[in-house]
């Protein structure tokens, strides 16, 4: 009878509660440890390992190699105009101006596109509204340039803006002027005739169907 109300019986529930509480603590501690472990593992997985990095290659081979080879195979040099007498953007020597021998300068070019029917050249002073200094047309596409003071055989020269045929060298009234030498690769004959007015001849060339043009700029100063 004493066991129904005595101390040993009263302690039993408290012992069970303590056991349950301790078990709960162990469970919580285990969960926390597991959580910490997965958090650290998550951090490691978020950082790519060296053997996981990749490089995207261009179609046809290693990165950039295929496209570079294709470009090199298919590309052609662009039409380019130069002069042995002056560099692009530099001063035109005096002998090629009205203050010297007034000869046309030597010109060289390359990269003439396939399909060119005629080469034509227009020279303008862009500081005086495009004043025409020279229009020479009818040049053979196989030609590689123009010798100093000697228009190529078979070519046609219109009058310049001064009213005389052929080349008129730079002759600025004041300051420094810029002279554009532009070569055109035409797909049709320009129709320029010898001795026709320079402005009209220049327009014919500039408006004719072409495969491109090349520009060389020279300068000359007054006085």
Short description:
The protein is of the alpha+beta class. It has 4 helices and 8 strands; from the N terminus they run αααβββββββαβ.
List strands and helices in order, with pairings.
Blueprint: H1 2-5, H2 7-46, H3 65-74, E1 80-82, E2 107-110, E3 118-125, E4 131-139, E5 145-146, E6 156-157, E7 176-186, H4 198-207, E8 210-221
Antiparallel strand pairs: 1-2, 2-5, 3-4, 3-7, 4-6, 7-8
Identify the overall geometry: globular
| Overall domain count | 2
End-to-end gap: 138 Å
How large is the radius of gyration?
A: 43 Å
Q: What is the CATH top level name of the largest domain?
A: Alpha Beta
Sequence of secondary-structure elements: HHHEEEEEEEHE
What would the CATH topology of the largest domain be? Phosphatidylethanolamine-binding Protein
The CATH architecture category of the largest domain equals Alpha-Beta Complex
**Sheet/helix structural class:** alpha+beta
Number of helices: 4
Largest sheet: 5 strands, antiparallel
Low-confidence stretches: 1-73
What share of residues are in beta strands? 15-25%
What is the H level of CATH, i.e. the homologous superfamily of the largest domain? PEBP-like
Helix content: 25-40%
* Biggest β-sheet: strands ordered side by side in the sheet: 6-4-3-7-8
Number of strands: 8
Mean pLDDT figure: 78
Descriptive terms for the model:
single chain, 223 residues, alpha+beta, Phosphatidylethanolamine-binding Protein, 2 domains, five-stranded antiparallel β-sheet, three-stranded antiparallel β-sheet, 8 strands, globular, disordered N terminus
């Amino acid at each position: 009878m004493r066991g129904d109300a005595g101390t040993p019986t009263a302690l039993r529930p408290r012992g069970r509660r303590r056991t349950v509480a301790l078990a709960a603590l162990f469970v919580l501690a285990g969960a926390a440890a597991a959580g910490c472990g997965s958090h650290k593992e998550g951090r490691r997985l978020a950082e790519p390992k060296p053997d996981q990095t990749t490089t995207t290659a261009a179609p046809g081979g290693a990165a950039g190699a295929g496209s570079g080879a294709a470009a090199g195979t298919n590309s052609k040099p662009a039409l380019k105009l130069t002069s042995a007498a002056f560099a692009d953007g530099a001063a035109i020597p005096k002998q090629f101006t009205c203050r010297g021998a007034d000869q046309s300068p030597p010109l060289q070019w390359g990269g003439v596109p396939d399909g060119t029917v005629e080469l034509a050249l227009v020279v303008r002073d862009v500081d005086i509204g495009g004043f025409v200094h020279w229009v020479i047309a009818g040049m053979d596409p196989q030609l590689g340039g123009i010798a100093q003071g000697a228009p190529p055989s078979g070519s046609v020269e219109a009058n310049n803006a001064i009213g005389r045929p052929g080349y008129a060298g730079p002759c600025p009234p004041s300051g420094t002027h810029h002279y554009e030498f532009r070569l055109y690769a035409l797909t049709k004959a320009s129709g320029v005739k010898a001795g026709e007015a320079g402005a009209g001849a220049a327009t014919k060339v500039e408006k004719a169907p072409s495969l491109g043009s090349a520009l060389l700029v020279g300068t000359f100063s007054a006085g």
